Amino acid sequence: MVVLRAKILRILGMLPLLGLLGGCNMVVMSPSGDVASQQRDLIVVSTILMLLIIVPVIAATLLFAWRYRASNKTATYDPDWHHSTGLEVLIWTAPLMIIIALGALTWISTHLLDPYRPIGRIDAARPVTAEMEPLTVEVVALDWKWMFFYPEYGIATVNELAAPVDRPIAFKLTSAAIMNSFFVPALAGQIYAMPGMQTQLHAVINKPGIYDGFSANYSGSGFSRMRFKFHGLDTAGFDAWVAKVKADGQTLDRARYLEVEKPSEAEPVHYYASVENGLYDAILGLCVEPGKMCMAEMMQIDAAGGGVENHEGNRERLVHDRSGSHEGFGHGLAHGEGSEAPGATFPASGRTPKSEVQPEGMQPAAASPAAAGSSAAPAGQGHEGHAMPGMSHDRPMPDAGSGETGSSSPAPAQLNQ
Q1: What is residue 20's predicted lDDT score, i.e. its pLDDT?
Q2: How many domains does the chain have?
Q3: Cβ(66)–Cβ(58) below 8 Å
Q4: Are residues 105 and 150 both part of a single domain?
Q5: Is the dihedral of CA 52, 55, 58, 60 positive or negative?
Q6: Residues 228 and 213 sit within 8 Å (Cβ to Cβ)
Q7: Per-residue pLDDT tens over the stretch 301-321
Q8: Residues 196, 276 share a domain
Q9: What is the DSSP string of 222-277?
Q10: Residue-number span of the structural domain to which 218 is assigned
């Protein structure tokens, strides 16, 4: 009786834990967009196919353990049994057929649900016709917020996305700083957004509603608040939303964008009634800041062989120093003095060492010919302006055929042992 009561109490104690399941969001398994629905179906079918072999194996394991237990004296004992053709056929044929089915399903779905491929249907009963123009939305991942451009309407928003129901959506995605992942589970699968690159995602929303969107790729301290709302609206509702953005929004030019781009957490919704021409392309090309070279120009120079006049000036135009806007946030495309990695030391950086610890195998500066010899190069100079311990510019390199090994230059300590 005491044991029974203890078991009952343990079961009752576990019941409150079931309440935690009430917080689970099953949106992936009950989406509102056709692309996400097809992905849900792929998950379900794949799971069922795998269970076709898993469940019988588990059942057979339990059955054999019970039937051939030591206490069952009626079970046939055959110590000389070693082979059964029928059992071999069953063991190999069933998994093979399931693997073939899963392979075919994966091959077809990989092509049909390719995020770069324009969708071919609104839902299972309605194909996309030539008259259906997709809604283009240009997405920019910022720290830690999302910016959406609507080139068809000349507007932009921060942390709010809207689209009409049953109209194809063509997303173009990039990032201003580091890699992120755009994900609206009710709409479609996630797709990465990366700086200097553009990815694509095609989808459609079939049911009106307000859905959650967020970043599915960790991107720093504000990652957990990098969320937005996606509004699925009917045609009239979407037109009203566009009119609201134009009525309440400000002008988004490059100067204002550079302010918005600065890292911030839990950013409220912003509306922009007009957008400077070419702003998204400048963000994609990493050339929003005045005087910066766009990626397209750099690629043209590379395609031409890379040899151009004023290449030093071009190098300065390619440096994207985010140390000011990302100060205190510990990441970004920073190349400035204030954002140097803690481990950077002379001579790799050409600046004062940040630690007194001498790297193993490196000669102290005072003991090297570069520091002590009269013919050594001045401190901070050398090949391409960097000092190289143990090497003097006045001393010629040994000739390959002379047998000279350059023994006057001290070798690392490991090689002298």
Answers
A1: 60
A2: 2
A3: no
A4: no
A5: negative
A6: yes
A7: 778 776 666 666 666 777 765
A8: yes
A9: TGGG-EEEEEEE-HHHHHHHHHHHHHH-EEE-HHHHHHHHS--SSPPPEEEEEE-T
A10: 123-284
